[in-house]
Amino acid sequence: MARLSRPSLSPVRGARRIAVIGAGIAGLAAARTLAQAGWEVEVFEAQGKAGGRLAGEESRHGSFDTGAQYFTVRDARFQRALDATAAPCKRWSANAVRVLDAMGRVVEAALPTRESHWVAVPHMGALAAHWAAPLGDALHLCTQVVALEADTLEPTRWQLRTQGEADSSAVHAGFDAVLCAVPPGAARRLLEAPAPALHAALADVRIAPCWSLQMAFPQASQPGLPHLGPQWNCARSTHHRVAWVARESSKPGRGSIERWTVQASADWSREHLNDDAARVQAKLLRAFGEITGIRVEPAWAQARLWTEAKTETPLGRSHLWDANAGLGVAGDWCIGHRVEDAFVSGLELALAAAA
Ligand SMILES: Cc1cc2nc3c(=O)[nH]c(=O)nc-3n(C[C@H](O)[C@H](O)[C@H](O)COP(=O)(O)OP(=O)(O)OC[C@H]3O[C@@H](n4cnc5c(N)ncnc54)[C@H](O)[C@@H]3O)c2cc1C
Question: Whose CA is nearest to atom 2 of ligand 1?
């Protein structure tokens, strides 16, 4: 039977109790903004840590950015939030190549840019962890929201049905508003029954999958030995399998063991959605060798699939907010495909909800 969680004193009508579904950057930006404005906020996150696609992972050879590789800052509000965080973010002076062909030849050199590329240390997930920390117990990890519905006892409010660890189910009730800060596929599933108009508004949004491969080459990290392979540290690629290659060990604060990340192209990832990780790993490894000339076997490698990775067709508005229903939607895919887009979307949804 599902456990019921409801505030012991039911809030007075109009009291500000809000649920945020998803603790990626959009959800964190929304939750922090609302908490600072005096709302009682609870955040529900399916995974065991906050960050979503702003993700990092430790291996025995050092850290990797398994999702976003770096972020750029164009919005003053994002800059202010970064200035206010204790999260260590450093400039990545990437020795970049703009585009490589399938054989790894440079077809477009890097353009001079005044825009800085930032990374969190020791990996991108650290930024999300810092932003999530003040939420404390209000952040429910390993708690997937499986349904959003009218509150059984107070039908003008909302309740969430959740699935937790070891298949434990619960109902969290008594919310005046619910913000869905999840990728569009998950948002559609949650909104279809309770909010058909919001659901319909997401119909044209498209987001591509991405297979990503992380590799470590400790054998190349002997004192006195040069880097393996090319002299550049990251590049976009026109290889039909690969869209992006980066030397993780060139990022600041990451440790010196030679480590690389490869991201497959959207088309190739889509074609190989149902492949197993071992098969994908072998194919991406071969492509990596063709592009970089590095043909030694990595001592450690791991492939993972992001089923909803990069926006192809955005919503075209920073967020959706239905004030009558108390329901809203945010995510990078509302306006773009970058970390900053997620932040701006979450922030603007929270400002609309708090107005
Ligand atoms: C491989 C890859 C490379 C990228 N590279 C870059 C880059 O170099 N630079 C850049 O700026 N951006 C990059 N991005 C994009 C960037 O990561 C995203 O723009 C940003 O992190 C999206 O944040 P978000 O909060 O909108 O969504 P997400 O990060 O996807 O957060 C959504 C959260 O909701 C949770 N969730 C989903 N469904 C449920 C549910 N039912 N119940 C509870 N929780 C749920 C998820 O677990 C997740 O934590 C990259 C993304 C990927 C995948």
Answer: 67
d(CA 37, CA 263): 39
How far is Cα 252 from Cα 114, in angstroms, rounded to an integer? 19
Q: Is 62 in the pocket of ligand 1 (CB under 6 A)?
A: no
What is the arithmetic mean of pLDDT over 301-314? 97
**21 CB within 6 A, ligand 1:** yes
E runs forming strands in 151-205: 158-163, 169-175, 177-180
User: For 296, what's the count of Cα atoms within 13 Å in the CB-facing half-sphere?
Assistant: 15
Query: Rounded CA gap, 101 and 13, in Å?
Result: 61
pLDDT tens string 121-172 = 999 999 999 999 999 999 999 999 999 999 999 999 999 999 998 879 999 9
Q: Per-residue pLDDT tens for 63-110?
A: 999 999 999 999 999 999 999 988 789 999 877 667 777 777 777 766
pTM equals 0.94
Q: Which of these, 128, 123, 114, lies nearest to 31 by C-alpha position?
A: 128
Find out whether the beta carbon of 326 lies less than 6 Å from any atom of ligand 1. no
**CB 308 within 8 Å of CB 329:** no
Atom of ligand 1 nearest to the CA of 330: 26
Q: Residue length, the chain?
A: 355
229 in ligand 1 pocket by Cβ < 6 Å?
Answer: no
Whether residue 52 has its Cβ less than 6 Å from ligand 1: yes
Protein residue closest via CA to atom 31 of ligand 1? 24
Taking alpha carbons only, the member of 93, 98, 68, 113 closest to residue 251 is: 93
Ligand 1: distance of its center to the CA of 181 in Å? Answer: 9
63: alpha, beta or left? (left if phi > 0; alpha if psi -120 to 50):
beta
The Cα–Cα gap between 281 and 302 comes to 7
- Cα 310 to ligand 1 centre (Å): 9
Q: Is any atom of ligand 1 closer than 6 Å to the C-beta of 125?
A: no
Q: Is 29 in the pocket of ligand 1 (CB under 6 A)?
A: no
Alpha helices for 264-354 (secondary structure H): 266-271, 277-292, 339-354
